[in-house]
Write a structure and sequence with these properties.
The chain has 2 helices and 28 strands.
Amino acid sequence: MKKFLGFLLVLLVIAAGIILYLAQGDSARLAAGKDTGREPEITTPRREILPTVNIADVVGWKTGEQPTPAKGLTVDRFAEGLSHPRALHRLPNGDILVAETASPTRPVEGVRDWLTNFFMGKAGANIPSSNRITLLRDADGDGRAEVKTTFITGLNSPYGMALVGDTLYVANTDALMAFPYKEGETRITVAGRKVLNLPAQAPNMHWTRSLIASPDGKLLYIGVGSNSNIGENGLDSEQNRAAIIEYNIAKKDYRIYASGLRNPVGMAWYGKTGDLWAVVNERDMLGSDLVPDYLTRVEFGGFYGWPWNYWGGYEDKRVQPERPELREYTHRPDYALGNHVAALGLTFTDDIKLGAPYEGGAIVGLHGSWNRKPAAGYKVVFVKFAADDRPQGAPQDVLSGFLSADGKAHGRPVDVIAGKDGALLVSDDVGNIIWRVRR
């Protein structure tokens, strides 16, 4: 009994220490805006034994409440009453597909797993995945989806979607699936066909699998995040991860298109040059002022540093063994979006009609930080592209107000796409709403 009480006392002391540490954490010292742009300020790392935790309590949106659009814009509810809506895809007839999804269930095998689940729950993310895709249709053109039907069920934490001809591809967390599609259908009942296994070994961190088809429909690109923060689960568990995978539909084979991307989520084609761009979430536990999440052009064969380097060659000395010879081969990202902003959604403004201030650039959904003081992200921004077809200047708010003045989360923006009428659609996985931004 004495041994048990002693063990319990030790656990209580450890728990008290953890709570005390987390209550303090690391606070940002950089001035606002210094962590964005082509040349962000890269500070000296402040290594953390435990990550700073600053998770906004979820309060949701009351009737009549909404995020704040930029001057000259208006926001409405396109659809609501969803279950953790994440990735969006517009079909040729204007219907919108939304993945209602969440992380697959993970076993709780220790204090770390318990804490992860606890904090995910606090952020509104630790919910059972609905494992479905829902179809939204605005048949009368009033800017609101009056049709909401279950389109595909029986999936496994689905995320990305891409339509090629009469085949709809869906990226589950563990496999790329193919379904027959017929325009105008409101439900697919045919069982999907597995096209490609995707890495999902435990603990399957960064479970989302984003997906985009090449403009000619011959290739698919799948974003697969790392299985750890900096490779601490062993590099064997990172095979085909922290990468964008290119799948050849006709040849039925794949290759790594680009690597060293810790968690590439949103992907989009830049129409002017035909280049693939992505937003990437960078590493944690180097303090609130490192490392900036970023927007970058993705080059074939490009290596972007993870886990050994960040921002084009700054070495992460926590990663062992070191690989200093990789620095000269590490691509520097094009544009910093800010430290810990959790960039998830990306689209270019080719089909979006929000007026001249929001033309010729990219729109990015910043899901919001959980490990930075003060909180960052929690908004949708516009990044202007210059004459050299690279991003420039500071990001401009398009839709903000997801975080209240007292630090509560009404919602968290995820994906961003153009609606059939040129409005911007934004999924909100905490508010369970699809927002519609228009002029």
